Amino acid sequence: MYSKDGETYFIVDAHVALWDARPENQRNIHGKQFIDCFYDYHRNLSPESEVWPYEDYLYQGGERLVRDLFENGYVDHAIFQPAHLGAFYNNGFGQTEEAFALTQKHPGKLTYNHNFDPRLEQAGLDQLRRDAERFGLKGVKLYTAEWQGDSRGYKLDEKWTYKYLEACQELGIKNIHVHKGPTIRPLDRDAFDVADVDHVATDFTELNFIVEHCGLPRLEDFCWIATQEPNVHAGLAVAMPFIHTRPKYFAQIIGELLYWLDEDRIQFSSDYAIWTPKWLVERFVDFQIPEDLPEYAPLTVNQKKKILGLNAAAMYDIPVPAELQLAPVEPQAVSVA
Q: Is residue 325 part of a domain?
């Protein structure tokens, strides 16, 4: 948790990863391209004091994750959102066994979400059922631009994806996190288009669709979809570090999200280990909409508390101490003339 100016914030980092991009795990040149693109984002959008050496970035390991998130980063709970990327990495990019073992070691601190690929058809669907039982899944992370054989992406509204989403409903996997954000080299930009979110959100109203990276650079498209689909949520991974390099741009992002959605459908994410949560939490608590953007209302403390943790805690049934919950809003008395 984080405290400042008499206020204490319960922090849920809703998008973290534990990866292995070391040369021995790179299947081909694309494995190097992918992690180099991550490192470019990290180096270019981080304060100089927060930039890691490249060698450290290839594999951070569980001990460092625990230190960076929970000991130094103010995080009360974090949620793994792994990417497989088997076309680029011999043993996959996200480290399933190590990440899940950490959740077993720190059950009150970490939640493990897994992934699926509908192009694996029935075999993958059978695996999803086994994974749901083994990991106790409440959510999954989808990379619609991931390569599989000759395919360089899939859409959420395709036949086999629907079968997987139907299985998610049946299995109680209610939270569908979808990467719909900036392209990562060498993945194709158009495979991350947000348009297919509209279709599935309408047809699967029992599921939550958390659009990670809030559709950037397609923020306007995302907002028009989310305002009419109440089960569509915005994840702030990738958007958050602009609070440092482009604070006015970040103000526009958060201002648009609060205008079109509401403070109950926006979730803080550091996207660890692309960035670390400590400085992002500190900057967000201090952040305010610039005066030269009067079309956006000022950020309130309660909005920041919801975004930094209470929204994701509610979605994942994460216990929040009573003293860190928001006080109920007292109904205003209506005066009769």
A: no
